What we know:
Blueprint lengths: L6 H7 L12 E2 L6 E2 L1 H20 L8 E4 L7 E4 L1 H16 L2 H12 L4 H8 L3 H21 L8 H4 L39
Antiparallel strand pairs: 1-2, 3-4
Helix pairs in contact: 2-3, 2-6, 3-6
Bound molecules: zinc ion.
The site of zinc ion (ZN) has 7 residues, from loops.
Amino acid sequence: MSFDWSSSEAVGLARVSCAHCLGIGLRRGRAQDNPCGCVLRKIFRSCYARFRACGSKEKHMGRVRLEVMKGSDGNYCWGMKEEEYMADFCLVSKRALEEEEYQLFRFHFLLGADWKLCCRRLKMDRGSFFHNVYRIEQKLGRVYRELQPHALFPLDEYFGGTVRKALPEGYTNVFEWPLPINPERFRALRPPIRKVA
Ligand SMILES: [Zn+2]
């Protein structure tokens, strides 16, 4: 069964000025609506920012905490959540990417090489570099969100801040966001901006 992207989740993550989804976050597919690339990239960038934050928090490294277990009512376990998250982030990404994609992911995102270094090392031009980074961000954003049984995103759920419970049927799909029939006809509104003296 394919993952069901809710329109309310997607709209909250979409880029308001996105020319593809117009800020709605979903794009109409043949069988079902698909999350827009801007939503997937946003998910990737949130997870990556958290990965970097975990890595830079040296003083917290190795600290063991008592945590509520996911999906349970008041069961606790001992865990090192930040280390687990960093390991999950690396492992899940490695599993999801092709060998060449992973090379770029490792150099750029894990080792912090900028585009110039990556281009020299991986023998690609600037255009291909950014194109591939976009593709990798979208691919991984989807994987992080759709991962079963415990997705990396939303981060607060991963880190045990909230536990998602299935809502009663009457509360789900309260309304649907209307999708544009032909997105090409609509463009994001960009009024001319004048500098105020
Ligand atoms: Zn979009």
